[in-house]
## 1
Amino acid sequence: MSQQVSPPPPNKLSSLITKEREFSWQVAANLFVSFKYAWAGITYSFQTQRNFRIHVSFCALAIALSLFLHLSPVEIAVIGITSGLVLALELLNTAIESLVDLTVKQTYHELAKVAKDCAAGAVLVSALVAILVGCTLLLPPLVILIMSKF
Ligand SMILES: Nc1ncnc2c1ncn2[C@@H]1O[C@H](COP(=O)(O)OP(=O)(O)OP(=O)(O)O)[C@@H](O)[C@H]1O
């Protein structure tokens, strides 16, 4: 049986909206500062996560190959979107890992395991899709190019 959850009264909702960042240690002052923090997150992942470095290398290779092989704009866009999805999920995986470690520290917790395993699973699913897309779009013209050289 589903439980009925009533929405908060309007005055409570407005106080939530105005105070939503009250627990933040610091709030980015402007868009440029926001980009700076986003870049800091990307460089942190690159420096600390081996899987992120591997994915960046494969995504760069796939995009470079798609340009080199003169794929259609739609095909290049599909490879770009797929690559972006893998990298974005890898960044979210790092964020979830950090949050879990911050919460439970070095203690074992079944829910910490679920959170980390599911985040890693999301990356794996996106990587498998990226391999499928890469093989479908890149392999045929690559094989034709290699065969033409012999
Ligand atoms: N606090 C914890 N409680 C329970 N299980 C944990 C905990 N920390 C890690 N684990 C288990 O160990 C696994 C590896 O943890 P880790 O923090 O290295 O994540 P990871 O996803 O393997 O990292 P990476 O993406 O860098 O390879 C997790 O997927 C989870 O199953």
Note: Helices lie at 10-18, 31-48, 50-68, 73-104, 110-148.
## 2
Amino acid sequence: MSEQAAMMSEAANDTAVGATMAMSTSSPPPTSPAKPKLDLTLYLVTSSSLLPPNATLESHIESAIKGGVTIVQLREKNLDTAPFIALGKRIHSITKKYGVPLLINDRVDVALAVGCEGAHIGWDDMDYTTARNLLGPTAIIGLSVSNVTQASLAASTTADYIGIGPVFPTRTKPDASTPLYPPGVRQILELIYSKRPELPSVAIGSINATNLQAVLYKSRPAEGLPLAGVAVVSAIISSTDPESAASTLLSLHKAPPPWAPPPQSQTTVFTHFYLPLILSKVVTIIRSIKEHKPLVHHITNAVVKNFSANITLATGGSPIMSENMEEVADLAAITPHSACLVNMGTSGPAERRLYALAIKENNKAGKPIVFDPVGAGATGTRKETVRWVLDECGYVDVIKGNEGEIRTVAGEGIRMKGVDSDVGGGVEELVKVVKGVAGRERNVVVATGATDVLSDGTRTILVMNGHPFQALVTGMGCALGSVLCAALAANKDDKLMSCLAAVLLYNTAAERAVKRDGAKGPGSFSVAFLDELYEIGELCAKGEGSWLNDVKVEFM
Ligand SMILES: Cc1ncc(COP(=O)(O)OP(=O)(O)O)c(N)n1
Ligand SMILES: Cc1ncsc1CCOP(=O)(O)O
């Protein structure tokens, strides 16, 4: 305590940088320094042990600030007090030059001794009130939270910001709590907003250039403050080029993610009154498949490959079946109109690596991903693959599955026998599940069955068309994924409308197929179905929409 008191008096003699920074902008009287400006956009947290060989923390931090870091936290777990203070002072002389606040991790005494702008404290550290009393009202103080209980307590303080994490598993903090993943971050943001609507937050834990946009997008609450920024350690500290690492992260932060729909592109008038308008869009979308012949990269199971390729061709798309990791990036970038189907028909470690790569490369190229969680509830491995794809691999634009699969994705403990779904809940109940998953993932969910349920979390559509023969042909369910891909690749404006077009095309083709001469059972039906897909496409190419006369849809 006496050591701390001594440091506090030393700090009082030192020029308070918060005051200096604030004074340089608004010149308040020296006796009442204002709080330094807090910009959490790109928050660098240090760890000298992760520096590349021959790099110094001083030069690394300076370069990172040049690249766009907006706030720095000195987090040095293995330093004794004296060298920690000495390092803090050296770093502070750098951050001050750029007007970037410096906070000290855990050690309020060191923050005082350094005379920097504040401290970041966790649950094992000094309590908030004591830290605030010691550091004073103008210091920046951040608090860590790892769950909603901590978030509730933290939001009842006057802390300046909240650090939410870990988002993902991280090697940088071996004692970190269970990962939250973006939906968990979102829950915490909602809780914080309900208690202190103006309190900003950052997310931390294995955030890097690959996942930053997905973290920001998927964690964004429907209402209230989104993340103010992201905090990173290894993504900048372990880089050999911290300036460009920081500037890449910053530009990703500023840019809309490639999968976000263009502003104002969504059909907002979604009621029966507008059915003719909606159906004319369906025709336009199917016509655009014919026009663009989108490439559909299939990562799918062996049983359905041939059928899926034929369905894609009949629809007007161009199928490619490839599980070669080496060509995933090329396929994602080869043409402006492409999409990738990730069908979890088989799900071992090699497939998981392939799915991750496909999602990463298609996210990067701004190409839609349709994820089919085949047999999701059948085994623990499949459940884990679903969790991993959705939590850790990036963003999937559409999830398509039968009721059991979608309920498993929602987190229900459904036991599926193989890949078939026999859960048999009512449609109303299913609508809630589908909307819930779509809202959680901020994407579109298509649940197939006698009534298909499509939702983007806000708008929900029921489609009652189709024929029971569809359930008797192997690959029929999986190949809908191909048509969804073709429609999404051809029309980027409104994903829900593209999915509706694909589902109406598919189910109407089935109804028309059984009316054809000779379609007496599943075998002849599957051939007639291909012909009908093709014929409907031809009608749409001519702008003809009469094939939609018998659609049975409901908007909710
Ligand atoms: C911005 C930010 N958020 C969270 C943390 C984690 O802090 P804490 O829980 O105190 O864990 P350690 O960093 O001390 O290991 C952080 N440091 N920064
Ligand atoms: C300090 C901290 N708190 C939660 S996760 C974490 C470590 C983040 O480091 P990285 O960005 O390297 O995963």
Note: The radius of gyration is 27 Å.
